[in-house]
Design a protein that fits this description.
The chain is built from 17 helices and no strands. It has helices at 13-45, 47-63, 65-80, 85-112, 114-120, 127-151, 155-203, 217-223, 225-248, 251-270, 273-287, 293-316, 318-326, 337-360, 366-382, 387-405, 417-422.
């Protein structure tokens, strides 16, 4: 067994495979538990109430998208500082402070708008939004904490963090839903996020040891704007349509649409291990001015093959998939599944390409991607006569998003900002 180990920190081919395997198994376990969570909740609360639940979940995930920016940035920084324990300790302690602040402010802000948001979503119970705000606290904290584990290649702990989250939600949400309906399901989700955040914080304790040196988050913020826009665009692209479906479609159709979205997003969850492993590996090689193209082609090829297989399976057995995920009462949502899973495949591949570009500091794709997202949302707001209109729009829009991310694959690697991310000083 040989590796590329000319100097400390050089990426090993065998290491990439091991990290990919650990991450894949861990995230797949988390994904299965996640779908157990959704399946149990959907069977507990029913079709119309599930439409409400899925819209609140989508809101939590959309509002936590900025934390996904943090995960990518923190992972990049932690990768650069892996062999400087004092500066890494300074980074981790600074991230702890920011995590607490962001989680508290974000959750409080959502709770503050409980009444008007409930009115917008046609919800009779504003307390549902309050519990969603508590869920948002955990959803915002986890990516910050996981970024440290990802960037230092602690993929076993990273995977266990995801398993802890979905396992806790799968236990508590349906159990509380039996007692309190949708209100209990959302409260159980909040509890699951909280328990996972505690585990993830403890898992990063070794990186807080030593004598931490000062680390400037202000410098990081200045150089991370493009990364922020890219991550927000990908996450909003993946989730926003479920919220608009709740707004524009009748309650029953919105519930069916939410079930189809849930089933299709399984593909995105399966493919999450690819960009998770790709980011630190590509960043290390790019920092050393080593070639990264073959690494990208391998990652993209694996993702594309899995996506193609999933689309074929969903096309052959759409009703089976919807029923398996959400239950027999959601079977009439099967026609939504094939176009939706194609759109999700395009979004997942766009995420792989975007992650590769971020790792190398090539950000020219951000403006085209943002324009595609804005155009797609505007199209649904203007044209939403039924679920067919929404599906046509996301199929075209997500395909254009993939093409937009590909605009940064060529050209020379720009100097400066990406290097500054890893060497920020006061």
């Amino acid at each position: 067994m040989t590796g590329i180990a000319a100097e400390p920190g050089a990426p090993r081919r065998t290491g990439v495979a091991a990290h990919a395997g650990i991450t894949f198994v861990g995230l797949m376990t988390a994904n299965v538990l996640g779908y157990v969570f959704y399946a149990l909740v959907s069977r507990t609360v029913g079709v119309e109430a599930y439409g409400t639940f899925s819209s609140l979940v989508a809101i939590v995930l959309i509002l936590s998208a900025p934390a996904q920016i943090a995960q990518m940035v923190v992972a990049k920084l932690a990768t650069d500082l892996t062999f400087d324990p004092d500066r890494l300790a300074g980074l981790v302690r600074a991230i702890d402070r920011v995590t607490l602040t962001v989680a508290a402010v974000g959750g409080a802000a959502l709770i503050a708008v409980s009444v008007p948001l409930a009115r917008f979503l046609h919800l009779a119970d504003p307390l549902l939004v309050t519990f969603a705000g508590l869920s948002l606290c955990g959803a915002l904290a986890l990516p910050f904490l996981r970024g440290v584990l990802q960037g230092t290649s602690r993929f076993r702990a990273f995977a266990l963090s995801n398993v802890a989250e979905t396992a806790a939600k799968a236990i508590f949400a349906p159990a509380l839903a039996l007692a309190a309906g949708v209100r209990g399901a959302v409260a159980g989700m909040a509890l699951g996020y909280a328990l996972a955040a505690v585990y993830t914080f403890v898992a990063a304790v070794p990186h807080r040891r030593g004598t931490p040196s000062t680390f400037s988050l202000r410098t990081v913020a200045r150089t991370s704007a493009s990364v922020a826009v890219a991550v927000v665009c990908i996450n909003v692209l993946l989730l926003y349509d479920v919220v608009l479906a709740k707004r524009y479609l009748d309650a029953h159709t919105a519930g069916l649409y939410g079930a189809a979205a849930l089933a299709a997003r399984a593909l995105y969850a399966v493919l999450a291990f690819v960009p998770t492993v790709l980011l630190p590996q590509a960043a290390v090689r790019a920092a050393r001015r080593e070639r990264t193209r073959w690494l990208f082609l391998q990652a993209f090829g694996v993702a594309a093959a899995i996506a193609a297989a999933a689309i074929g399976f969903y096309a052959l057995f759409p009703e089976f998939v919807v029923v398996a995920v959400a239950g027999r009462s959601f079977a009439s949502g099967a026609p939504f599944l094939v176009p939706y899973v194609y759109a999700i495949a395009a979004a997942a591949l766009a995420n792989v390409v975007a992650t590769y570009n971020v790792a190398r500091g090539r950000m020219a794709f951000v403006v085209p991607l943002a324009c595609v997202l804005a155009g797609e949302i505007a199209s649904i707001v203007i044209r939403h006569r039924g679920p067919g209109d929404l599906l046509q729009t996301i199929v075209v829009g997500h395909t254009l998003a993939l093409l937009a991310t590909a605009t940064s694959l060529g050209g020379a690697r720009p100097p400066g900002p990406e290097a500054e991310l890893g060497t920020a000083t006061p």
